[in-house]
């Protein structure tokens, strides 16, 4: 294999992975290594549609003034992910501001940002954000299409498990499996042997399978990362007692039930961690079956000073494809380590089951009629003809 062909195949694989990350991130509500801005609030640092490398907070150091962070806003445009710069810090949290805005987010009714709300930091080199121009422009055009696909399939099949981030994971799983099985069935051993005796051009079938494995990994990550995240509790530290669970006498505590639903079909291992002072969780580890709901209890403590406070619990979810003890050991090292190991297991298992059945040939473009050709071959062939 010559260098040019190797570089071409590597670029194809990189493009597949980048596209999958960008499409999955908006659906998850959490960036997956790559993200983008939709408005001009960060001009001139980032124009609308520009992308950036979003480093998960679990992999970065403490947030500092000058960092550009993506956080879960409560008030800005009705709430949701916002990417702004940290311009200060108080006892109640961080002060943030868009580079193009004349006022801070907190001047516009957004509460101070807590560490538990920050999901990623924009990669910076020498204090400058690494910007990828126009990266998000195409992605925004696909968001509505992706939601429409999920909604239509959920309606046709009569299940809500295909909605949301976890539904995206199942959808990617299904499409990958069906795509490969149909292609393998149509191909046949005889036609694969015949192709090895012909002059071959195009993309290696092994590269195609590796691309499928990459999509499978993105789907698995979506199924785990999507339902995870930070759960917020509003606590009123009061001078009196109340029947309301969120009103607690100053310096005292109240316990309330905490439900952990699993809308998917695959059992998940769930780990719960307090993410702020004054929070205790009765059960830090739960295994929740597909379509089931587990319950535990959360104890919230009111600070001695009266007022309104926000307290947080962080959930980490992992597909239950490994023994719980193994997941627990990996989780103890780092919360992202089980995700990496499970993704590697799924991708490695997929390749182990599929690579022995391919001959190392190439998915080719042919000029004769398409009848009898493989699904992969027809798709790649038609795309090459359009490019000419």
From TrEMBL:
Cellular component GO terms, alphabetical: membrane
EC code(s) of this entry: 3.4.21.89
Coiled coil: none
A molecular-function term among this protein's GO annotations: signal peptidase activity
Matching InterPro entries: LexA/Signal_pep-like_sf (IPR036286), Peptidase_S26 (IPR019533), Peptidase_S26B (IPR001733)
Leader peptide range in chain numbering: none
Regions crossing the membrane: 163-182, 203-225, 336-358
Catalytic EC class: hydrolase
Keywords: Hydrolase, Membrane, Transmembrane, Transmembrane helix
Subcellular location: Membrane
Descriptive protein name: Signal peptidase I
Organism this protein belongs to: Halomarina ordinaria
